[in-house]
């Protein structure tokens, strides 16, 4: 009988201990963790076909992770892992041809003037 009571109390303690981990997780404050290049739509709207990589880097900065195998494609990734809530992720990929911007795609809208070079 004593052995059975000890088993039941051990199992009850284990169940309470494990269930408290999930509630403890909500009580502990964790900082928001931003990673990558934070970009704003207003900066992306300044991009134009025909810009050099240096001009693009002046506007957006260089991507945090550069591709060692393909210098003609820059990918900007930003991810925010908040304390509470969903993970926020945005991407922008820029394609260059011989150091000149030719296209962009991703989570940002192209400006109406994107296809108009600066020289025009």
TrEMBL record:
PROSITE patterns in alphabetical order: PROKAR_LIPOPROTEIN
Keyword Signal: yes
Membrane topology label: Lipid-anchor
GO MF entry, a single one: protein-macromolecule adaptor activity
Gene Ontology CC terms, in alphabetical order: Bam protein complex
InterPro entries, sorted: BamE, BamE-like, BamE_dom
Keyword Signal: yes
GO BP term, pick one: protein insertion into membrane
Pfam families reported for this sequence: BamE (PF04355)
Signal peptide: 1-24
Outer membrane protein assembly factor BamE domain boundaries: 36-103
Keyword terms: Cell outer membrane, Lipoprotein, Membrane, Palmitate, Signal
Gene3D superfamilies with a match to the protein in the record: 3.30.1450.10
Compartment annotation: Cell outer membrane
Its job: Part of the outer membrane protein assembly complex, which is involved in assembly and insertion of beta-barrel proteins into the outer membrane.
Summary of subunit composition and partner proteins: Part of the Bam complex.
Family per similarity comment: Belongs to the BamE family.
Name of the protein: Outer membrane protein assembly factor BamE
Originating organism: Idiomarina seosinensis
Gene that specifies this protein: bamE
